[in-house]
Amino acid sequence: xxxxKGGEMARILVAGGAGFIGSHLVRRLLVQGHEVxxxxxxxxxxxxxxxDVLGFPQFHxxxxxxxxxxxxxxxxxxxxxxxASPPHYQRLALETIEACTLGVRNLxxxxxxxxxxxxxASTSEVYGDPEVHPQPEQYHGNVGTLTERACYDEGKRLxxxxxxxxxxxxxxxxxxxxxxxxxxxxxxxxGRVVSNFIVSAxxxxxxxxxxxxxxxxxxxxxxxxxxxxxxxxxxPAVHLPVFNLGNPREMKVIDLARLVLHLTGSDAPIHFLPPxxxxxxxxxxxxxxxxxxxxWQPRVSLETGLQETIGYFREVLQVAGDGFEA
Length: 326
Ligand code: UDP
Description:
- The longest helix is centred in the first third of the chain and has 22 residues, at 93-114.
- The protein has helices spanning 20-31, 86-91, 93-114, 150-168, 193-203, 222-234, 253-264, 288-294, 302-320, and strands at residues 4-5, 8-9, 11-15, 35-40, 59-63, 76-79, 117-123, 172-178, 181-182, 207-210, 216-218, 220-221, 242-245, 250-252, 270-273.
- With 326 residues, the chain is of the alpha/beta class.
- It is a single-pass type II membrane protein.
- This is NAD-dependent dehydratase.
């Protein structure tokens, strides 16, 4: 799915392009022939994620915080700039709120000023601890303002409201509610469940299950997520488009731990730790809207995606010299 501006390949801004999903998106856009400007403050992203493209003439890296006024020309922009892993956004709570509010407003203003289109990455966290299952886009969520997750959940909710207000004022913005995404280029210390379990299994350390592991998530491989984001950008103008993007296959965290042990061939133990603060009990996207409007659904099975991610972490740990395997 290519993005064109009057027959030309577009100049595309990827805010948060040095992060996990952003770096995959940057690579896809460059392969398509676009000029790509990556803006990232490197608070949770890494330039090493973009090592292979840093020298490309079509690629530009700007180390900047989107919470500060932005002076970048672009035809289209993807906003993936925000800490997204619970330990990181809890450590960077105020910065997370700023990225979701000041940062999103800066991007929306720049997009409106330049007549550019914006795809904003929101999150399944806007549904909080859902009382409706699976979650359709119409569900308003069950969220608290005074919780350890609120900086992210409420930040992302306000970001959506900013998109709504700018859309009314003529800005062409689309909202992607991303459910748990995983794949290569997650950071080994990211803190999210897939990277934690794989790194532990490969290192022979205990897999840490928070609570009894009966909570569920639905895991989407990153290439499927990136494909959906590109399709969302290419969608003709529609009435305030908001889309769940995720894989509807739901799994208990304890079953994920067992699957990772099976796929890695590791005999690391499973340790049960106290539940994480304000941890949602279940989560599964309803993706009928994306299926219909984007002609999209996830293609990569959890087993295949995990194998690829395990292969990536094997290399990372070998380079670091702390995997248990040859
Ligand atoms: N989780 C876990 N062990 C870990 C990391 C996470 O049991 O080492 C659990 C966490 O409590 C949550 C689920 O896995 O129920 C997904 O957590 P993650 O941080 O990946 O994403 P999020 O909670 O934002 O969906």
